[in-house]
Design goal:
Blueprint lengths: L6 E2 L2 E2 L6 H13 L4 H29 L5 H33 L14 H14 L1
Helix pairs in contact: 1-2, 2-3
Amino acid sequence: MIMEGLPISGESVPEGLGERGLRMWRESLAIWSLTPAHLVLLEEACRIADRLELLDSMLRAGSNSVKPDVAQFADISGLLGESRQQSAALKALLAEIRQGQYGSSPAAVDPAGGAGVSDLTARIARKQAEG
């Protein structure tokens, strides 16, 4: 049973999340402290997770009845393409959320460096100032 609108870690569950998205929402809020902007990104990531679950079920159903029909292959090919795009979007959103957890302190991620382009830029600037 999916309980929408009930608070979890001070945030209400977005309406319409499926089982996978709801699990992602709960587990993410349990480990991350998110800004309002990152909560929006998390909500979209949860919706994409649900969408990927749906696409996967459609692909599984299609693969069980695959016949050497060109039209059916095109349908499966389209589903695979959409699944790849949704996976890439999910990966990008999760990377953005994770990056937001580290703020401007590269040491919080890795003492030798940072987690992204902004951290690399900061390290270059520090090196130039030192030498």
